[in-house]
Amino acid sequence: MTTPPDAATSANQGAAPVCNVALLGFGTVGSSVAKILCERSNTHLSLSHVLNRNVARKKVDWLPSSVQWTENIDDVLSSNADIVVEVMGGLQPAEDWIRRALQSGKSVVTANKQLIARCGPELTSLARQRKQQIEFGASVAGGVPVISGLHQGLAGDELFKICGILNGTCNYILSQIELNNVPFATALREAQKLGFAEADPTEDIEGLDARAKLAILARVGLHCNVRVEDILARSIAAIDAVDFEYANQLGCTIRQISWAELKPESKPDLLLAAVQPALVELSSPLARVEGSKNLVVATGTYGGETVFGGHGAGGHPTAVAVVSDILAIARSKQAAITDLGQPSEKTPTVTADFTTRHYLRFLVKDRPGIIASLATILSDCGINIDAVVQKPGCPKSHLPFLITLEECPAALVDQALRQINALDFLVQPCLHLPIL
Prior knowledge:
Elements: H1 5-14, E1 19-24, H2 28-39, E2 45-51, H3 55-58, E3 68-70, H4 73-77, E4 83-86, H5 94-103, E5 107-110, H6 113-129, E6 134-135, H7 146-153, E7 159-165, H8 168-180, H9 184-193, H10 202-205, H11 208-222, E8 232-233, H12 241-249, E9 252-263, E10 270-281, E11 293-300, E12 304-311, H13 315-335, E13 349-351, E14 355-364, H14 370-380, E15 385-390, E16 399-409, H15 410-420, E17 431-435
Helix pairs in contact: 2-13, 5-6, 6-11, 8-9, 14-15
């Protein structure tokens, strides 16, 4: 049966236009993005270009022959690609190429947390000027839709606190120390052997990876412009199996916690922000996150706590977040959505001076008067001791014991520790963790 001309015309008009996608980077995430784009035939997305170094070595036969492979960014910028997807990582040339893509009238999707943490506001402003979009949902927590959840799902609330576990590598290492009663170095080697940790794990272990992610969440969820370097980051390398034993006696476990909390009553605006290992109660959702998973808890004035959780790393989960951003841009182009603007951003003073209880774990050469010396310094700084706990049966030359402190500002504890760490009976500097 012949289709009437008017019906055929109507069907063609109703068909969604194809959105061409260019991919910068064809590593673990990039190849997963390409696979999803090619296997999902009903999305009206078409992979047009793949840019990578050493194209001859990277080429695969499972991509359509229509895909153009290149090592030259100008091939992409002068093409008919509607969306440029950056999954190369690093600050340069990624920043330069993203700027040029936006200037050439192309929207951008990126998974680059360090770049967005440092240049996000500028790139967003450039995208608005050029009437394009930049999306970065994969830059935090991989496949967990926390960026879109904060940006859209919780837009009706007034968020004032975001905390969570943002680094799967650290969470895996701490979980292994806890479950297997092994030293930090052993847990790290195991994480590297299984691919959870890089050969150089500095970014993860020292909190730098999570710090960049926290800066992004503070901007998206709390509308705070925060310099990454202003957020305190502390290492997890000093955590030992004995700390989990002590934590358990306190009804807690230890996790690397990223925390950002607005204090709206402060003038000027004050943001408490830090990435550091901390004790969390066993009843907390944060305590139940094991292995390499991520979890984010957003707290609002009206909606209370909302929890986002799932796999925060890996090619496929991250690629799902990237493709979700691509689809969001494609849909908005079809719908010609009007930009309603964003809430005004604050530029708060950033501090890590949390007022909370504190955990101090010492390793000492035992002798009389140690507790008295510590108590005198803490008392002179205006700090009250809550409890003293000592594990029996340890050698006198390396004796671990714990002091917990009543609630007080972190700055007071740091002041006391500057004196304490100079005492001659310490085998190593005191481990200081907040008790959240």
